[in-house]
What does this fold into?
Amino acid sequence: MKKWLVILSASALLAACTAESPEDETTAKPQKPTTEQTTTKETEETTKAPETEKETPKKEQDMTKEKDKDADANTQTLALKEYFLADGKKAHFQGEGIEFATYDVQTKWLNDNYVAHYVNNGGVEVQRIFRITPTTIELVVDEVIQTEKPDVPKIEWLEKVKPLEIVLQSPIKKGATFDKWTVVKVDEQVITPAGTYNDVIVVEDKGKDYVDTRYFAKGVGEIKSVYTMAMDNNETYKTTSTLDKIY
It folds into this structure.
């Protein structure tokens, strides 16, 4: 009888252990992400990536625009025909330093591209003819008038003549050079007896012992010239011609 009781007790214990085993099978185990979850994550990362790529071109464009603005602020495109008086107008310049620094000049338009100046300083009369191109004002004739009436060259001949000097060149900015001239200012204010002029262009021809400075204002042209030279006796020779009136 005791033998059967032991067997029954052992069977009951085994049955109890077997009943507890399903609880272990229900314990949560780590699982790999599903294909749908992986695809969603990759899509989010791909969507965010172009934001960084778009920022760089925008910054480069902004920097380029700023550089262009700076260049525009320092460079002027000149309407070169505006640097002459109207046809038939005269101007009187008051001189200092020597007698012939005082002179009168009359403007005569030969056509849209050629302008003549007749300069009389009381001792001699000179004919100067300028050619206006899209980018330059060129001096093409500079000669003393030896007859009562100036001999005006034909346009056909003028078009073949090489320039003697470039007077102004466009576009223009401080530090630019052309011919023998250097642009030293583009926004000078000059007060003359004829009036006050703003945004005056100042050009300079500087040699070993001399400085030739010219001032140009829109609507008139040259309004002032200053020439200084160092002399052997340590003195400075200086002449000035300044616009006095337009009539």
